[in-house]
Structure formats: C-alpha cells, structure tokens
Amino acid sequence: MTRIAAALLILISTAAVFAQSDPDFFAPKTIKARMEAAAEWQIAHPKHESYDWTNGAFYAGLFAAYETTRSQALLNALMDMGQKNQWKPGPRFDHADDIAISQTYIDLYRLKKDRKMIQPTIDSVAKIGKDKSEQVDKNGIMWWWCDALFMAPPTLAKLAKETGDRSYLDLNDKLFQETYDRLYNKQEQLYARDASYLINEKGEGKRESNGKKVFWSRGNGWVVGGLVRLLKELPKDYPKREFYLTQYKHIIARVADLQQADGLWRSSLLDPGAYPGGESSGSGFYIYAMAWGINNKVLDRNKYLPIVKKAWTGLNALVHLDGMVGWTQPIGFDPRRNFSAESWEVYGTGAYLLAGSEVIKLKS
To answer: What is the mean pLDDT of each run of 10 residues along the chain (364 residues)?
Structure first.
C-alpha cells in the first residue's frame, strides 16, 4: 500500500467521527481521529519551503500528533520531510526562524539516533557569536521579535539535552533575556511583537482603535508555546528555569482573562471587539500551553480546566469536515482582519495538533 493510499484510508476512517452531529471533543478516540484528519489534510496541501518557519510550527505539531496516535503514515511524512531537506535548517544561521524546523529533526533523532539528522543544526548554531550577524547589526539584538521565542529556544534546549553541552542553554539564556528586556510589558504581562509596537515615554506609538496598546494574539501564542517546549527540555534544577516558568504563568494568567464568549481569542488581545471571530492559531497555542500546565501540575486545575474545555470546544468548531483548520490569520506581524472560515495556514494546523496532544492527556 502506498503512503498516499494509507493517508486516504485514515481520512475515510475518520469521516464518521467528523460527521457526528454532536461529537464528544474530549473523547480520546475523537481527538485522535480529528488530529489525524487535520494532519493528513495539511500533508496533502503543502505550502512554503519545508524548512520554513511556518512548517517548523506545523511539523512540531505533526510530531506531537505522531506521539499521540502512533500513526505510521504521520511518521513517514516526518521522515520524508527531513530527508527532503537533507536535515538542514534554513540558510540564515542567525535568524531564529531558520532553526524552528530543527526541533523536529531533533525529535526524530531521538527515535533513530542517526547523527546526520542533527549535525547540520549543530554546525549552523556554532556560527552564532563567531560569524557576523545581520540580525544584530540591523536590530541590536538577535531575537528582536517575539515569535523568535517559539522558533529557537526549544531547538537550543533540545541540542543541550542530546549533546550534553550546556553552552546551548547559556546561549539561549542570553538571547532570551535580551528579547524579554526589550519586548515584555510587565504591566500588561504580554509581549509586544517587536520594538515598533512599543509606546515611548511621551505615550506615543501604535495603538488599537480603542486606544489600547497592540498585543498580537498569535505573537503571544508563539511565546507561551515556545516556553512550554523549552520547559519540557530544561533540567528540573536548572538555575534559570524559574524565570521561564514565572514568565509562562504570568502570560497564561493574563491570557485567561482575555478569553471571549466562544472560548477563543481574537487576533488582537486588548481590542477583541474590533476583530473578526475566533482566530485559530493563537487560540491553539494557548490551549496547548494551558493544557500542558494542568497536566504538569503547574497551573491550578480548578481555574484553568474550564477555560481549556471551553476553548477546545470552540477551536474544534473552526475545523472543517475534511480536517482543514479554518479561521487562521495569514502570515503577518500584527493583528489582522483579512481572514475567514476559509483561511488556513500550516502553523494553524500545527497549533491545533499541539493543542490536541495535551488535551487528550487531561483527566475528567
């Protein structure tokens, strides 16, 4: 049987679940079926270079879906991607986006133990601090946008764990701290997307139509999703772990207060009324991060479980019968209104798969 035929069989077998008029979105069988259908739909609709940051997020979710379902078809797709890329990250050694895909390479390395799967990433990261950096020259710091905190820190932490080289953690601490110092708003407990969204001492800068500061939903979703993936890799006794855990808790608490009536979050966190219905990518990352916190006993279950249940139900309402994850804001760097039920992107599917991989672990 070909891999395409196997994928079609998965889609056919899950159709009955998707067709239920009132499915139990928390039943493990339902979660697995919906994750498989979403994953297979996205595999059948490729977009962007496979090493691109967008696919870095998708394949992170796809690996989580494989761990959840143990689907050979999904593992085949993961391996095909790595082999097609020759296990290479993107071409820019100093750009966090270009090592996002390396998270999946390292996860697959843990299964196969083939050094060629991680050596190109090791070689690329080795240039940081040694070769001239365009990012630092242009922006003063290397990780100058909040999305970077999903793309790069988990890769460095995974490398540290697999190689035993703690210098990767030192590098992550340095670069993460720079981003935190520049972009984190301690009053709002949220990240600005980049320095162009900061308000100066005179109160001047970009604002939403209601006068609030601009805090992008997916941008902060990138941050908390990245923090979860970082915390999963850090040693329990790591000196800086508490800094990252506190960051995570503060952002999650703030985001929880901004959930909308349908259980989801709008593309603008502080001006939800000015933006269209629930945005799937930011919402997916929040569900993933909150469910992980409940499962790992770092969040109050009584407070956060109802939020996650409402959000997961709302997110599944955005998934089409064929598995396409709709209502995903297109590529951008700020809140947008130019999307609808038919809008999809690979990172939207990735966020959905990551969310499902943690929701399925929740106990009633």
So the answer is: 39 38 85 98 97 98 98 98 98 98 98 98 97 97 98 98 98 98 98 97 95 98 98 97 98 98 98 93 98 98 98 98 97 93 98 98 84
Q: CA-to-CA distance for 102 and 120, rounded, in angstroms?
A: 9
Residue ranges of the domains in the chain?
A: 3-359
Q: Are the beta carbons of 111 and 82 closer than 8 angstroms?
A: no
Would you mind telling me the total number of residues written for the chain in this entry? 364
What's the burial of 115, exposed, middle or buried (CB within 10 Å: 0-12/13-18/19+)? exposed
Helix (H) or strand (E) holding 61: helix 53-69
What residues are labeled active site?
A: 147
Contact 231, 245 (CB under 8 A): yes
Please give the structure tokens belonging to residue 338: 């130019």
Question: Quick one: which of 340, 287, 281 has its CA closest to 310?
Answer: 287
Number of Cβ within 10 Å of residue 267's Cβ equals 28
Residue 27: half-sphere exposure toward Cβ, Cα within 13 Å: 10
Torsion of CA 316, 363, 253, 266, to 10 degrees: 0
52 three-class SS: coil
The CA–CA distances, whole Å, from 161 to 229, 293, 315, 347 equal 13, 21, 33, 26
Nearest to 147 by CA among 231, 240, 54, 274: 54
Both structure tokens of 276: 């269209």
Chain CA centroid to CA 348, Å: 9
Residues facing residue 190 across a β-bridge: 185
Domain 3-359 has CATH 3.30.428.10: no
Structure tokens at 275: 């933006």
